[in-house]
Write a structure and sequence with these properties.
The protein is of the alpha+beta class. The protein folds into two domains: 37-88 and 139-217, NADH Oxidase; 90-136. The chain has helices at residues 6-16, 23-36, 50-61, 67-70, 89-115, 119-136, 161-178, 196-202, and strands spanning 79-85, 147-154, 182-186, 209-217. It has a four-stranded antiparallel β-sheet, covered by helices on one side.
Length: 239
C-alpha cells in the first residue's frame, strides 16, 4: 500500500520552510487541502502515530468558540477531546450505547411517519440509513476506524454549541486531510449528549456538554477530489 507515513514527512518539511513560502504558495496549498477533503468510510487497520492525533486535536482546539455564550473561558476549558481506540473496552461500551440509541431513533422515526404520512417523503432516506445500520450491527465510524474521537463543547446561553462544534470538526477534518489521513463525521454522537452512560464513559457531567464525534485513520482507498459547481453559478453579487 506504499509508505503511509510519507505525508507526515512532507507536512513537517512544509512547516519547517513556512517562513519562505509566499502568499500565493500558501493559498495553493490551502486550496489543495480544501479540495482533497472527503468523507472516508473505509479505513486501513494500521494505527496512526499519536502525534498525528494530537495535531488533529490541536487544530480543533484552535477553532472558534462562543465565548460570550459561556461567559469567557474562566478556569474551565470550553472544549474537551476524548480519544477512543478501536478494540478498547471504552469502544465496546460506546458502540453498544450508540447502537441502542439508533434502535430507539428507528422506533421514533417510524412512529412519526405513521402519525404523519406526509413526513415519509422527507425522512425516507434517513429512515433507510438507520435501517441499514441496525441490519449491519455496526455504527459507521465507531469501531470501523482506528480512532473514534468525541469532542465535548461547554453549553451556554444562547445555545450555539453545535455551531462551535462544526467549526472544531472542520478544523480537525482539514488537518487530517493535510496529514494524509481519512476522516469521517460520526454525527450520531450528538444524540448521546444527554445519555448518562455515554457521558460516564467520557467522565463528564450529564447535561453540561454538547457532543460530536469523528472517526480517524488511514483511508483504505484514496478518494478523488471534491467536485463542486463553479463559484459564479452559485453566487449573486448584491447591490
Amino acid at each position: 500500500m506504499g509508505n503511509l507515513h510519507e505525508p507526515v514527512r512532507q507536512i513537517s518539511s512544509s512547516v519547517e520552510n513556512m517562513c519562505t513560502i509566499t502568499v500565493v504558495q500558501k493559498n495553493e496549498i490551502l486550496d489543495e487541502i480544501l479540495t482533497s477533503r472527503r468523507s472516508n468510510r473505509m479505513f486501513h487497520p494500521e494505527v496512526p502515530p499519536d502525534d498525528m492525533i494530537r495535531g488533529i486535536i490541536r487544530a480543533g482546539l484552535l477553532a472558534p468558540f462562543a465565548a460570550a455564550a459561556i461567559g469567557g473561558t474562566g478556569k474551565e476549558y470550553f472544549r474537551q477531546f476524548f480519544v477512543i481506540k478501536n478494540g478498547s473496552n471504552s469502544m465496546a461500551e460506546a458502540s453498544k450505547l450508540v447502537m441502542s440509541k439508533i434502535h430507539r431513533m428507528v422506533e421514533s422515526v417510524e412512529e412519526d411517519m405513521n402519525n404523519n404520512p406526509e413526513l415519509k417523503k422527507s425522512v425516507d432516506t434517513f429512515a433507510k440509513r438507520l435501517d441499514m445500520i441496525t441490519s449491519s450491527g455496526k455504527v459507521p465510524g465507531i469501531g470501523t476506524a482506528p480512532y473514534y474521537i468525541v469532542v465535548a463543547e461547554l453549553r451556554g446561553y444562547p445555545s450555539v454549541e453545535r455551531q462551535s462544534l462544526a467549526h472544531c470538526l472542520e478544523n480537525m477534518w482539514l488537518k487530517a486531510t493535510a496529514l494524509g489521513l481519512g476522516f469521517q463525521l460520526v454525527s450520531v454522537t450528538s444524540e448521546m449528549s444527554d445519555d448518562k452512560k455515554f457521558c460516564d464513559i467520557l467522565g463528564v457531567p450529564l447535561g453540561k456538554y454538547e457532543l460530536m464525534g469523528c472517526a480517524v485513520g488511514y483511508a483504505q482507498t484514496p478518494l478523488p477530489p471534491s467536485v463542486r459547481p463553479p463559484v459564479n453559478d452559485v453566487t449573486k453579487w448584491l447591490t
